[in-house]
Design goal:
Blueprint (H helix, E strand, L loop, with lengths): L6 E3 L5 E3 L3 E3 L17 H10 L1 H12 L2 E6 L4 E6 L2 H8 L16 H4 L9 H11 L5 H20 L6 E3 H18 L10 H16 L3 H9 L8 H21 L10 H7 L10 H31 L2 H11 L6 H14 L5 E6 L3 E3 L2 E3 L3 E6 H4 L40 H18 E5 L7 E4 L2 E4 L4 E7 L3
Parallel strand pairs: 5-10
Antiparallel strand pairs: 1-2, 3-8, 4-5, 6-14, 7-10, 8-9, 11-14, 12-13
Amino acid sequence: MSTIPAAAPSEAGQTWAESPAGPAPDDGAPFNVPPGLDGNKARNALQFGTRPLKFMMRAREELGENFRLDLPIRNERFVVTSHPDHVRSLFTAKPELAPTMTGESPLRPILGPNSVLTSLGDRHMRQRKLLLPPFHGDAVRRYADMIGQVVDSEIDRWPVGKAFALAPRMQAITLDVIMSAIFGIEGRPQRGTPEEKLRTTVRRFLTWSAHPAWAAIELYNIGRTEPRGPMRSVVKSLDRAFYAVIHARRAVPEAERGADILSLLMAARDEDGQPMTDSDLRDELMALVLAGHETTANQLAWTFERLLRTPAAYDRLRTAVRSDDGGEAYIEATIHEGMRVRPVIPIVVRRVKVPWQFGEWRVGADTAMVISILLVHHREDVYPDPFEFRPERFLGVKPGTYTWIPFGGGIRRCLGAALAMAEQRVVLEAIARRTDLKPAGEDAEKDWQRNVTMIPRKGGRVILESRRSA
């Protein structure tokens, strides 16, 4: 593994080696691409797409913080980096110089071209400006009481003394929260309504997509703009559910629709005064519902998977939340550490449109640059003993903009970050206050890639030893 020379200070008082990074002049200078992994390309690509944690750690051990990844399926070269200076250069670059590649990811056949996740340029900025207010400030604070009620009801249903997966239980909570924000529903949707059918369809989809066979289905659809094979049937099922909700809401007079996100989107007009089409609404809602709850649910499952295997941290958290001051600082630190060691989104990708310099390496225009969030979060020079679960490292320390990046960064930073953090605070506090848990097995759970998310392979299996009243 490459060594790290003299270091420069980060925002959090940590250090890393300074490294030249950013757009390079198109002066005809030769390109200098980092080395790639030896061995079978198909096997490397399969491990990259199914076991990202294992793959990234092996690649860094063999090649250092920058390396090349050749994918035979796309016949394209990816360059992976994990240096904070290179992260900064890509996150702060003008959008036209380093646009996101989300629209080329496995999300594209599912989300469509018109969502805030897959759109680019001016369209993306208009969507982001429209959607930011419902995910920030007073809007997020209004959700806190509802989140508390939902999590208490969920905890009351957990079986004592029996193993169960935490991720699906967390999905039930976060799905209710995001549907409240988007559709204006208080609590769980009423039976037989389009929203209730949508909730059922989304949960069924998440169950399907957690199956190992789904990875093969995604590989079959890489590079496609429309779904094919089994994915086509799955997306049609989701489409029927989303369009039913849209059509039901359109039947309500505009003055009676309320202040939820769907009503906000229906009232929006483009620069020509035209409203969003049903197809536009479908793409936007699909992105908000799927990305807005599934990531947070699995992040909570990952945090507890790590926490329960670190008894000192778990004991300190329970003691803190059951004390008079409520342990807010330690709750926040635990969330930050959970998102550091097991970020649900393990990579983000930018396609540089001009030659790019990162350290000693120089790549040409149209290169796919992968920022490995996993590797950034496991830098020894930023996080000593990076594989240890230590919430204390974030007590009194603000996470660095380019060294703690579970929500991405720049103009593509997750617009639901404030809501996700609020959900995690309420849920983590309630579970730690009301329950005593233990891991369901001795071995740590392996990671598994589902679409663009890294989830606990068994869903974060736990055993509820005891439960306190709400």
